[in-house]
Design brief:
Elements: H1 18-26, H2 33-38, H3 47-69, H4 102-109, H5 113-117
Length: 118
Amino acid sequence: MIALGLRWADIGSERLTWRDLRVIAQTSGPGTAIYRATSPGGAGWSATDYLLADVFDAVERNTYALIKANGGKPRTPKPHPRPGVKSTSTETKRTGTTLLTREQLTARFKWDAKREEG
């Protein structure tokens, strides 16, 4: 509203009627706080942002296909994250909840204990 030269104190006056406020809220663009507050799933992404993410994904898939076609072993492309869309990947792996001592960590990861102390 500040960008429009309006203040909250103007609400209900001839300068800013309640209808005007509703129209401002309904037509707010993706970069505005009103849009983010009323569209939490969109998180401020415009149609252009979604299209750009689609282009990014297409480039990743084409790169994957090119490397695979030439006998390489590429990593499988993952879609670029979009706001409001839950990831279906299983990237996070739990390794357990047991705490290890320094000696156990050193043995497990084959760290050089002398180098660690120095």
